[in-house]
Write a structure and sequence with these properties.
With 431 residues, this protein is α/β, with parallel strands linked by helices. The chain has 16 helices and 21 strands. It folds into 2 domains: 195 residues, Flavin prenyltransferase-like (Rossmann fold); 207 residues, Rossmann fold. The structure holds cytidine-5'-monophosphate. Cytidine-5'-monophosphate binds next to helix 13 and strand 16.
Length: 431
């Protein structure tokens, strides 16, 4: 019935993400959800309809998704919904006949890279905590070695009942990742705790969980993003067109490989869910935040477009134009060069060079002048504020690595793949 179930898991097929070909210019897998075998357990609760969106987003992330519906889950959403979204059979029956390639819960459990239960009802959480195998989902949860992510959703009272809280504490103690629930409007119409965590949150945690044992596990990567804003007066600033996209993609790519990430940013994009976000505005604030973060950092990636100059003083009141004034003179002071001046032994520094001419020569000069391990050179006009980039990656004592036009997400994966051996080398040298 389900011939695809005999497939090995993605991690078995490809080896762990990023390993094997860390400097390959064209990676097969660029993020951990891609081709991962995810078993999505859906239990009974009105939030089960949101699991359809989660299944769809997992499929869009190129995961191979096997949905298992509990009896309660089937009361809310039909198997056909998930079958249509995942293009795979949906599993409901613990006693379905075995075939040559599919041995019920054993096959699903063995092939899974990750088990996600969303929504997890109070009843399912209790069954998981007690280790009950009274249905297919319970049997899979007991027999799989894959990590388990549980997203509870229920009424406020059920969630806060000591029984549910104790069961959740038991799961956490066993290493289960519990995401949410959130506070908000519940199906009853009352406000309270018990809303299913957002699909983005569940996806982000799933992604981080799949990547957590990657080659950057135990490393702390500090990433800056966005253009600094240098205030002229309370309402105006000097800024630039940087969107922050590159920095956010780098933060995600480092998390994908198991790193802990601090993202120091002027942008307000939605950050990777496991990143520690430090919002800043000015170059000086960014410098202070970077200085603090790199104390525990292994790598600093400065993707931010830092203003070279700032107004030498910020007016406390809004600057007024006068009828007799044709020209406004601004005096600017040079900002500190953050990446050039921040250093500590073993810190691997990666910079960007957005240039309008002599790309490689200018970037190489910056690599040397700022003490960088790697610099990513790209055309300033073509890149800043755009979703794509044509970049050349330059490392010391290596030929420039010219990459074709690609999304910033893909470029981030390429950069992080090259950062991994640099950090390993630092580790070996320091050992
Ligand atoms: O000299 P340039 O601004 O082209 O250098 C770009 C690189 O240096 C980027 O990685 C940028 O984030 C970083 N930079 C910095 N502090 C500054 C200016 C740039 O860290 N004041």
């Amino acid at each position: 019935m389900d011939e695809q179930q005999g497939e090995p898991s993605a991690l078995e097929r490809e080896g762990r993400l990023g390993q094997g070909a860390p400097t390959a210019p064209h990676l097969h897998i660029t993020h951990p959800l891609q081709r991962a075998r995810v078993v999505l357990g859906v239990s009974g609760g009105i939030a089960a309809y949101k699991a359809a969106d989660l299944a769809s987003k997992l499929v869009q992330s190129e995961a191979v998704v096997d949905v298992v519906l509990t009896a309660g889950g089937q009361e809310f959403v039909r198997p056909l919904t998930f079958q249509a979204l995942t293009k795979r059979p949906v599993h409901t029956d613990a006693f379905a006949p075995w075939t040559e390639t599919s041995f019920g819960h054993i096959t699903l459990a063995r092939e899974a890279d990750l088990l996600v239960i969303a929504p997890a009802s109070a009843n399912t959480i209790a069954r998981l905590a007690l280790g009950l195998a009274d249905d297919l989902l319970g049997a899979i949860a007991l027999s799989t070695e894959a990590p388990l992510l549980v997203a509870p959703a229920m009424e406020h009272g059920m969630y806060h009942h000591p029984a549910t809280q104790e069961h959740l504490a038991t799961l956490v103690r066993r290493g289960v990742i519990v995401v949410g629930p959130e506070r908000g409007r519940l199906a009853s119409g009352y406000e309270g705790d018990g809303r299913l965590a957002s699909v983005e949150m569940i996806l982000g945690r799933a992604r981080a969980l799949l990547g957590r044992d990657g080659p950057l596990a135990g490393k702390h990567v500090v990433v800056t993003a966005g253009g600094t804003r240098e205030p002229l007066d309370p309402v105006r600033f000097l800024g630039n067109r940087s969107s922050g996209t590159m920095g956010y993609a780098l933060a995600q790519a480092a998390i994908d490989h198991g790193a802990a990430v601090t993202l120091i940013t002027t942008a307000s994009l939605s950050p990777p869910v496991t990143a520690t976000v430090v919002p800043v505005e000015t170059a000086e604030q960014m410098r202070t935040a970077v200085e603090e973060a790199v104390k525990e950092g292994d790598a600093l990636i400065m993707a931010a477009a830092v203003a070279d100059f700032r107004p030498d003083r910020t007016q406390h009141q809004k600057i007024k134009k006068r009828p007799d004034q044709d020209v406004l003179d601004l005096r600017l002071t040079q900002n500190p060069d953050i990446i050039a001046t921040i250093d500590h032994p073993g810190l691997v520094k990666v910079g960007f060079a957005a240039e309008t001419h002599d790309l490689v020569d200018n970037a190489r000069a910056k690599l040397a002048a700022k003490g960088l391990a790697m610099i990513v050179a790209n055309d300033a006009v073509d890149t800043i504020g755009s979703a794509e980039s044509v970049a050349t990656i330059i490392q010391r004592d290596r030929l420039p690595d010219e990459l074709p036009r690609m999304s910033k997400q893909r470029l981030a994966a390429e950069i992080v793949a090259r950062l991994i051996p640099l950090l390993e080398r630092e580790h070996d040298d320091g050992a």
